Predict the structure.
Amino acid sequence: MPYEDLTCKSKMLFERACRVIPGGVCHNLRYFPPYPFFVSRAEGSRIWDEDGNAYIDYWMGHYAHILGHRHPEVVKAVSRCIGEEFYHPGLVNRYEVELAELVVELVPSAQKVKFCSSGTEAAMYAVRLARAYTNRKIVLKIRGGWHGASTDLSCGISHPFEVSETDGLPSGVEENCIPIPFNDWDAAKSVIEKYAEDIACAIVEPVVGVGGFIPARKDYLENLKKRLHEIGAILIFDEVITGFRIGPGGYQERCGVIPDLTVLGKVLGGGFPVGAVAGRSDIMELSSHSRKKPDRVLMGGGTFSCNPVSMVAGITVLRILKENPGIYRELEEKAQKLRRWIEEAAKGRLFVKTTGAGSLFMVHIMKEEKQIESPDDLFRYTHWELRDTIIRRRLAELGVHMIHAGGSLSTAHGEEDMVRTAEAFEKLFSELKL
Ligand code: PMP
């Protein structure tokens, strides 16, 4: 049945939304044409919309739900906290200490950690720490990398990278935030040499997310870290997506390149709002309240920072992951199987490649037979513009929900979900006219 016939209630809700919310959504990725379906319930690997349609979900709350939607242990722990203790005392409590101890135990670069309410905030603070520590201004970021929409980091995110990312940036912001190519060391190095004396840090998603779930090559990260340290700058990993998802210690643990600072979010909050900066004590301590202006880094205001509901949910999820490390192997095997099935479903019809790491994956309909090693490659060699238009809508009609033609597997996704997903792709590929 056509999407519009399946989703009448969502259509009406979207019309109402457009009257009071610019563009009808508060997060641009949640829109797709002609209008998004409105979710009424979620459980395990599934979501349901207002018209009662079920979808196998791979968006998983922006990849936050590694154990699936509404995991019973999380529901229990959060309900107890809210029902019997508090939900927002706005004062220190045991839960932030417990979660901080888990982060320091699990994440190799984390000697100290500070929580805030979102990954965007955390990335903004990490960059501020780097600038203060080095007394320099320039931040390097990956072309196609996303760290939230803070003023400091709103450049070089989407295609075409040369065009300003947003109106409303004050002067100086774009001069001090310089994009570098991903996985191309020679090209990145030439940018570094040009600005060497003024570079405070590079902030890198070690598996670039929105830019295609493409893992960084180990030698690229090693070279980057080495050269940054030689010039007196530091390396920041943004592991908001990969932290606790690729493994208990994130991508840094897997690749063995340990950054100076790490930005965390998503899985860390067990499905509730969270962000964190973790890293070397000497850098993190610059944010201590015991330091006085101007020699301190202002960090960690925030009415809801360390809110106990997020802390309790995070502790619950991180403990489950820590006690069951086999989860990661299972998730990775599932993702590899699904990727293989989807690529096979395209055989003889279209040329399709998948990228990913661990439980993260993305499906690319290729324009030509090339490797995808960077966001630049993604925009050059794939039909990326179909991801959130035709592909998203057709998959939704077939009962599968993906953003950017990809997503994340959770422990709740079973073989049947995966078979149905591969069948949906087969149907989509058989109909697609390029
Ligand atoms: N960094 C990365 C790599 C992200 O994927 C995101 C969110 N998608 C952010 C930072 C921003 O996090 P938040 O949405 O929690 O502000």
Remarks:
- The two ends are 22 Å apart (CA to CA).
